[in-house]
Amino acid sequence: MAQLFHTSANMIARLSLLAVVLGAGGGLTALLTVAKSPYNTQQNMPVDQPVPFSHKHHVKGLGIDCLHCHTSVEQGAIAGIPPTKTCMTCHSQIWTEAPMLEPVRESFRTNESLEWVRVHDLPDYVYFNHSIHVNKGIGCVTCHGRVDEMPLMMKANTLQMSWCMDCHWHPEANLRPRSEITNMTWAPPADPDERLALAQRLVEEYNVQSKVSCSVCHR
Amino acid sequence: MATQVHPLEDAVIGPNQNNTTITEKISDIVLGKDAPLFWYIGVLAGLSLAGGIAHGAAWLVLKGTGVWGLNIPVGWGFAIINFVWWIGIGHAGTLISAILLLFRQDWRTSINRFAEAMTLFAVSCAGLFPLLHVGRPWLAFWLMPYQNTMNVWPQFRSPLVWDVFAVTTYATVSALFWYTGLVPDLATMRDRAKTKVVRRIYGIFALGWRGSARHWERYESVYLILAGISTPLVVSVHTVVSFDFAVSVIPGWHATLFPPYFVAGAIYSGFAMVLTLAIPVRHFYKLHDFITMRHIENMAKITLATGLVVFYGYMTELFFGWYSANEYEQYMVMNRISGPYWYMYWTLIFCNGLTPQLLWFRKIRRNLVLLFVISLVVNVGMWLERFVIVVTSLHRDFLPSSWGMYFPTFWDIILYLGTIGQFVLLFFLFLRFVPMIAMFEMKHLVHKSEQVKQG
Lengths: 219, 455
Hints:
heterodimer, A: 219 residues, extended, B: 455 residues, mainly alpha
């Protein structure tokens, strides 16, 4: 009887075994890598807005504090997007003719809100509360990054749950005095002993706890 | 067996079979040009029932698990009942192929191939239910531990996670075991096939088997190792399934009895299903020389033995309900017997307590029609057992203000019937495309019985 398969079939069979192992392993690794990459998380990718508002210019250049616009961050779940009126306190006086600001003026005239594109968008099943974080000594920059160096707003962190959990397991590493919450350049003491002492003091003073139960964030 | 009436009927293989007749008879079922009419009827019936899965699953995914009859207090309904039922059925296949092999029981030979196939198909039906019950099956991979973006692992203290490991291991090992046992026969199919395409297809799956001494030597060791790996699975898989219940604190579930009771129930229902399949297959394909009365009777005996263990389990449940001196356990027992689901309980006792007692009688064990009916009754009984365990314990637990009733909806039923269809369909496809009896093992039996004859 003639041979059913060419002798190369042996090699093909062996290679296909190898391909299955490598393919499965490589495929899984690729998937996990893509899941954590900026391609998926949109980390460090500037987002187009109706008005190209520059945090860099307003925070670093002009020295406006975060709380000037995001007024509810200390009391509420959301930090708050300022009403057009807040923009117009200055922009009714300066740059009144700038074409870039026309949507702001139009919003003010028509009483229709500007539709900003949300950059830090958590899934709906996550109940995030700004006030608890701010009051326990977590600074704006810890999650939002150097906003004062962003001409256009972008995510500095992945906002994936693993990133949340890193801090929720060990919150003491990211604490700062409440007075420094909006400070973009504050750094903990360089001396390790001092840093530890500060962390311990803040943990005690603000009663900071590691909260890792599901129902803390998913109700 | 000293009291044999018909010594020839009790052989594991008919008297006039030799190597050639075995190969011809079994491989012709697959390689024959046309399938018999009943095969087409079976495939069509399976296919149309299996459509229920597509229908039921699509609606479930669109609307959510609310389309099922589930609600608090009964959050576990048909999905778990059917899952446990199907998984249990699979166990006979593993027992026949692994444990009976290690104990060198000759009579396993002609039934192991399709009993293992039955295991695979039953596990595939079982697996559907938890996947669909999670509500979003496309996220079911979250059940697996992997380095995810959430920095969380599955809850390793939960028996539901153990279940994932138990069932995936079971499915993998069963598939490997079945396929390994198939390889020499696939080579026979390759050599006997008439057209080049068919020869090549079987040739690919035969993995270059030439039947050399070295091949056989390797085959025997691998097969024995796989049998060794499968053996603990016969006990462990359903033990873990029983932990889904026993590790909780619900009255009627929280019992140390559960693991052995579940394992016995699994083997009991599995053998009943093997009988349900073997009796018609033997009749329609005229396999009387291969599946002899010895096989049928032995299976009936195992069904009886495991049935008695299961019945003992029911009695123990009643006893410990009373003996616990615990108000809730005692109420659970009374509620099973005389509560709103009393008819389920008493039908269960009829099916699993009384019916198997008929198998004490040799006449009944050898009456194929009666045995077929009994095997069906047992299958129904084992389904009812899971219904009684799941529903009667949940629907009235500690807090009377939250008592309720559970009734399946159309979508529960269509999905259940769908899996039966899938099972039937896969089994008929198996009968047509794979040699349903291990030819080379049967030849081994011929060889052995010739040695016996020569003295």
